């Protein structure tokens, strides 16, 4: 039996129940995933008929765009499932063994690392697309814009390395 006053217990129960305020946000991420799927399909439908007349460079740019959208969707799923399981409630579903192996095992630190890795990959693809457009586009990026794209990408890379280093330091300190 608890020695806490009833008002304190009720307050803590209410505080704990407030995690359900996140549920509509995760539902919004499901809607966002649907939006991203529509954009992916629109791009695919637009470019598929052009495949026989496409140059190799154009095909690579189209594929990079589709990969970019796919990575963003993967990131969205990771945030959706991991966030819900870490902050709201465990997903108790009978999936017939179809459950991804990482579900239920990604903690906040793992989620952080997957998030930054996805951002770096998306940034790298965007940067590669811009480099491939140099000299080909009717409206090419100027040197300043390219410089800032590289700087921003390197900030993402450095952030990822620093986060990994911090997680490594924390994991090492827990062992002692």
From TrEMBL:
CC terms in the record's Gene Ontology section: plasma membrane
Cell compartments where the protein resides: Cell membrane
HAMAP family associated with the record: UPF0114
Predominant localisation class: membrane
Family label: Belongs to the UPF0114 family.
Regions crossing the membrane: 20-40, 60-81, 102-126, 146-170
Membrane topology summary: Multi-pass membrane protein
PANTHER family for the chain: UPF0114 PROTEIN YQHA
Protein name: UPF0114 protein E7681_16350
Keywords: Cell membrane, Membrane, Transmembrane, Transmembrane helix
Keyword Membrane tagged: yes
Domain of life assignment: Bacteria
Keyword Transmembrane in record: yes
